[in-house]
Amino acid sequence: MSRELLRSFGAAPVADRVVVDGKFFTGGGVTAGIDVALTVAAEIAGKATVEAIQLGIEYDPAPPFASGSPEQADPAVLADVLTRAELRQRDRAERVARAAAAL
After folding, report:
1. Domain parsing of the chain, residue ranges
2. Model-level pTM?
């Protein structure tokens, strides 16, 4: 819901879970942190090592609902969440604007 705020920092937001841009690795969403960590580990140690790590932690995500992104969510659910998040999102946008202006 805040992906578009990345434009304030000169980034081009995308819906990918993991983005590698040169030396920068980023992820979208809470569990994408694991995906980013595995991607970084693959860069350092190779695919076989990361497959062993993934198996060791039994990381095999299978969300019970297809509502993990605005693109997938039911439109009514998305509208409800956006309405409830309006104040928080406004505050976040103001903070992002101040942070971007300070760069």
Report:
1. 3-102
2. 0.73
pLDDT digits (tens, 9 = 90+) for 38-91: 999 999 999 999 999 999 999 998 889 989 889 999 999 999 999 999 999 999
Q: How far apart are CA 76 and CA 36, in angstroms?
A: 31
Is the dihedral angle over the CA atoms 42, 45, 50, 53 positive or is it negative?
Answer: negative
Architecture of domain 3-102: 3-Layer(aba) Sandwich (3.40)
Tokens of 102: 């300070």
pLDDT, one tens digit per residue, over 72-81 is 999 999 999 9
> How many residues does this entry show for the chain?
103
Alpha helix (H) ranges present in the chain?
Answer: 32-45, 47-56, 75-84, 86-102
